[in-house]
Amino acid sequence: MLYIVIPVFNRAHFTRECLLSLRKQTDQRFRTVVVDDGSTDGTDKMLATEFPEVEVVTGDGNLFWTAGVNAGIRRALDLGATRIMTLNNDLVTDPDFVAQMLAASDQNPTAVLGALELDIATGKPIYGGEILDFRTNTRRDLLDELKPEQYQGLHPVTYLPGRGLLIPKAVIDKIGLFDEKRLPHYLADFDYTSVARRAGFPVYCNYDARLSTYPDESGQTLTRKHRSLKGYFQHLFGIRGGGNMVNFTHFALKNCPKPYLPYFLLNGYARRVVGYFLH
C-alpha cells in the first residue's frame, strides 16, 4: 500500500488544494498522512471537517521538514505501508499522477522516483531532474538537454527533491529515514536520494507523472525577494536557509567522492557566500 506523507505548517489554502487534487486521482490505491506541525491557521479543524479520510500526525511546531516527514513515515509504516511518497502541500497533482507513479514503481520496484514539475501559472515544465558532477560542482538540468518530445518515461538523475518522491520500503529498510539531525530542513531530500543511489537503488525522474507547483512560494524565493543583512545571515546559517553552510558541508561529506571533496567544498562555499545577491 502506498502512503502519501505531507508535512504542513499553516498555509491551509495550499493544503486544501493539494488534498482535493489527491481526491481526484484516477487510481485511489493510497492513503494520506498529514503531519500538522503546530499550525495556527485552522489547519487542524479543516482536516477534521473536510478531509476525515486523512490520517493526521500532530507536531509541536519544531519539526521542520525533515522531522515532520520522518514522523509521517513512521506512522505510515506502522499502518502497513510498502511504499512511501513524500509530498509538499504547495502543489497540485495531475489526475493520473498516482497511477503513473505506481505503474513506474511496479516496473521498477527498487527505484526511487520523482516527478516532472510544472509551473501552475503557465503549465510549462520547470524541473525535471538534474545530474551533478561532483568533480566540478556543476549541474546539468535535464530539461535543457532533452527535447520536448523526450519529456516522457524515466530519466536517471543524481538526486531528487521531496516534492512527489516515491520511496519503496526496501530503501527505508536499508538506509533508514531522512537525516533529521544533520539536515533538519533543506537538502535532506537531495541527501536521502543521493544516499539511496549510492546504496544501489536506481533514482529516476518520471516524466509521465506530473504535478504543478508555485515556484514563487518557495522559502528561498521569498527570502531573496526582500534582501537584507538579516536575510543574508539566515540564508547562510538559518534552518530554513537555502544556502546553509553547515547543511551543505554535511551533504558534501556524506555524498561527494573523497578525491573531489576539497574543491567541491570550496566551490560550494563560494557559491553560497555570493549567490544570495546574484539570484
Feature tags:
single chain, 279 residues, alpha/beta, Spore Coat Polysaccharide Biosynthesis Protein SpsA, Chain A, 2 domains, 5-stranded mixed beta sheet, 11 helices, 12 strands, 23% strand, globular, Glycosyltransferase 2-like domain-containing protein, Glyco_trans_2-like, glycosyltransferase
Q: What gross morphology would you assign? A: globular
- The number of domains is 2
Tell me the CATH architecture of the largest domain. Alpha-Beta Complex
| Structural class by SSE content | alpha/beta
Number of DSSP helical runs:
11
H/E element string?
EHEHEHEEHEEEEHEEHHEHHHH
Helical coverage, percent range:
40-55%
CATH class of the largest domain equals: Alpha Beta
Mean pLDDT: 92
Using the coordinates shown, work out and report the CATH topology of the largest domain. Spore Coat Polysaccharide Biosynthesis Protein SpsA, Chain A
Q: How many whole angstroms does the radius of gyration measure? A: 18 Å
Largest sheet: 5 strands, mixed
Q: How far apart, in Å, are the first and last alpha carbons?
A: 41 Å
Q: Give a count of the beta strands, DSSP E runs of length 2 or more.
A: 12
* Portion in strands: 15-25%
Uncertain residue segments: none
Strand order of the largest sheet: 3-2-1-4-11
